[in-house]
Amino acid sequence: MANVDLVKVGENLLKRGETGESVALQSLWQDQPVVLFFLRRFGCQVCRWMATEISKLEPDLKANGVALVGVGPEEFGLKEFKEGGFFKGSIYVDEHKKSYKDLGFKRYTALSVVPAALGKKVRDAASKASAGGIQGNFSGDLLQSGGMLIVSKGGEKVLVHFIQDSPGDHLPLEDICKALGISANAKAGQRPVCNDDVCTR
């Protein structure tokens, strides 16, 4: 886990997905702990599946006073993402990708994204998404990676700073709960067998 400067990162502005209002990132952890899920892009099939997985924790997070927030790197695909009901938390957009950069979420190059997208973790997650009826598209910024940041109330400390190593990397639900010191009833989706229909999404 890299060292995160919460003061610097907290000053970054996000646009609220519902209203378009700009808010400082630090306002999201000012009054409660927060789980910040940084998506690669809203149209990504694997990201949509990860959003549904993390959303399984929403009732337990809410019961423990923890906010669940999704952040995307662009508005492109936001409407379809919201209409699909993939995520149960609040949604924001980091149009300038400043938080992504400050948190060390890498950007792929046109050459490096192909092998990353064909990796086993991506194929497995895409297979889970397909098995769950979740589709995606290739619209928007295909080169941005994501991750997760979990911050204690008031920004006292970073509980988790997770950086995706490949587009299919995600933090297990039990690790999120453990970092927050809560228990949850949610069960992670079963890992399906990959097939050729989903290996490149």
UniProtKB/TrEMBL annotation:
Top-rank EC class of the record's enzyme: oxidoreductase
Domain of life of the source: Eukaryota
GO cellular component: cytosol
GO BP terms in the entry: prostaglandin biosynthetic process
Catalysis performed (reactions): prostaglandin H2 + [thioredoxin]-dithiol = prostaglandin F2alpha + [thioredoxin]-disulfide; prostamide F2alpha + [thioredoxin]-disulfide = prostamide H2 + [thioredoxin]-dithiol
UniProt record similarity statement: Belongs to the peroxiredoxin-like PRXL2 family. Prostamide/prostaglandin F synthase subfamily.
PANTHER family xref list: PROSTAMIDE_PROSTAGLANDIN F SYNTHASE (PTHR28630:SF28), PTHR28630
Protein known as: Prostamide/prostaglandin F synthase
Source organism per UniProt: Eleginops maclovinus (Patagonian blennie)
